[in-house]
Design a protein that fits this description.
alpha/beta; Arc Repressor Mutant, subunit A; 3 domains; eight-stranded mixed beta sheet; 17 helices; binds pyridoxal-5'-phosphate
């Protein structure tokens, strides 16, 4: 029989508000430790997030974030309509602490723990799980439209006559013909000003953001991040030791003046100017110029993540921030995850020339170099004109999928979710009526087989309104229709 653990929790939780460590992380660790050491026994019921928030003087969002992390890792079970319980069957890994504590009690044998960084990493929510995506997972391109046959032909042709030296260690900056092809693509398609020597290939933007933070920041240096913003960037900057300064975003993108008021001397700003993540707004020209002036005046770096910029529907793609930069402060990031497929793990930097060597050394110390075969096939794909054709096809397909999505949403979700077609990208934010909590809506949607992310997950400051981040790019018309009906049922039950 499940027992209420209310008093138990309250007497054992201790949080240090002056430590500067996120409160949800402190709470998460306290609860995890209590479960690992069996102070909280399996099937013990935890107090509701509302009453725990009240008793600990925290926001409900903080409690929910800590609970969600523990649920995701298997320490807790959330039972709909009944509450949150310590899991009956704890995952294999967390049996380890018992062994550890037995060892630790052996005199003279030190306990084995992870570093502080390891603990930070353990506290970060994982990305989407590596399971088949359900509607409306966002961040995925149309995998059904990936030109698999053509890719196979290009790969087979190359493999049949591959010079053996390409099987050895490669250039840490990446395969030179691919760097040439990317430089000329960026010059024409994104108004990026660069020579091939400035291009360094890496394993996707995720690695790029981490490398940039590692090379450019000292421990506790301040970094502006967009609020709401991309969790992948937030996590990578955090584990590289940055102190995050959340800067609000409005319909013109990052509010530079707010950033200056919050922390003028930040060392770095991470932005998504072409298609703000997750709001999808485009940074205005005046904000771009203001950001560049701030970076130049304060000696800061700007990371421009241009992740989904090719897909604009009613206007031409906006030129990159890097192309406006007269001072050499912008580090431009691109990725083939959205243009082609995330599994390729091919992304790239365009760096100011003086940073090329240090970035390439950092990259080589972590991965030596990106896998050569994918780079070679991708080079052929670009050089033979397939990439340009693929982008044109995808733009049309995403436009169709967006209108299928909007049409289905207007039919099924009236009064439940307010949706406006975004100018760009393959996802959107739908706004919930004030009475519906977005975390609850996500859970209800999941019960109906619909994937959504709560808008509040992306906010560091409390968001005024709850919303759902929904992707439409990866799903067919039929999947969109069926998913929308299920989402409507879920939201009607919130
Ligand atoms: C804002 C943003 N940047 C970059 C990426 C791509 O990351 P990667 O190149 O590591 O696959 C994503 C993927 O979801 C994203 O949302």
């Amino acid at each position: 029989m499940a027992k209420s653990g209310r008093n138990l929790v309250l007497t054992t939780i201790s949080l240090d508000r002056s430590s500067g460590k996120p409160l949800y992380l402190q709470l998460y660790r306290e609860l995890r430790e209590a479960i690992e050491t069996r102070r909280f026994r399996s099937e013990t019921r935890l107090p509701s997030s509302r009453s725990l928030a009240q008793d600990l003087g925290l926001s409900r969002k903080t409690i929910v974030e800590a609970f969600e992390q523990l649920v995701a890792e298997g320490y807790l079970d959330a039972k709909v309509g009944s509450g949150t319980y310590v899991s009956r069957a704890l995952p294999q890994e967390i049996r380890k602490p018992q062994i550890r504590s037995r060892r630790a009690s052996n005199a003279g044998v030190p306990a084995r723990t992870t570093s502080r960084r390891g603990q930070e990493i353990a506290g970060i929510s994982p990305f989407f799980p590596a399971v088949k995506a359900k509607p409306f997972r966002h961040g995925l391109p149309a995998l059904d439209a990936f030109p698999l046959k053509l890719w196979t032909q290009l790969a087979a042709k190359r493999l049949r006559s591959l010079p053996r030296d390409l099987l050895g260690y490669g250039d840490p900056k990446g395969y030179r013909p691919l760097r040439d092809a990317i430089a000329s693509y960026l010059g024409t398609a994104r108004a990026v000003r660069c020579e091939p020597e400035q291009v360094v290939i890496v394993a996707g933007s995720q690695q790029a953001i981490y490398l940039a933070a590692l090379v450019l920041l000292d421990q506790n240096d301040c970094a502006w991040i967009e609020d709401p913003g991309y969790l992948g960037a937030r996590g990578a900057l955090q584990i590289a030791g940055a102190r995050l300064i959340p800067v609000p975003v409005d319909e013109q993108g990052l509010r530079v003046s707010a950033g200056v008021k919050l922390h003028q001397n930040a060392r770095l700003a991470y932005v998504t100017p072409s298609n703000q993540y997750p709001l999808t707004v485009t940074m205005s020209l005046s904000r771009r110029l203001e950001l560049l002036e701030w970076a130049q005046a304060s000696g800061a770096w700007i990371i421009e993540d241009d992740y989904d910029s090719e897909f604009r529907y009613n206007s031409r793609p906006v030129a990159s921030l890097q192309g406006l930069d007269r001072y050499g402060r912008v580090i431009y990031l691109g990725t083939f995850s959205k243009l082609l497929a995330p599994t390729l793990r091919i992304g790239y930097f365009v760096l100011p020339p003086e940073l090329v060597d240090v970035f390439s050394t950092a990259s080589s110390l972590i991965t030596r170099h990106p896998p050569a075969l994918e780079q070679i096939v991708l080079t052929d794909f670009i050089e033979q004109g397939h990439l340009a054709r693929h982008i044109r096809r995808m733009r049309t397909l995403y436009m169709e999928r967006q209108s299928d999505f909007i049409e289905a949403a207007r039919r099924e979700l009236a009064g439940l979710l307010e949706i406006t077609p975004p100018e760009a990208g393959t996802h959107l934010v739908g706004w919930l009526p004030g009475r519906i909590d977005d975390q609850v809506a996500v859970k209800k949607a999941a019960e109906r087989g619909v994937e959504a992310r709560a808008f509040s997950t992306y906010c560091l400051q409390v968001s005024a309104r709850g919303g759902l981040v929904l992707g439409y790019g990866a799903f067919t018309k039929n999947q969109i229709r069926a998913g929308m009906q299920r989402l409507a049922t879920a939201l009607s039950n919130c």
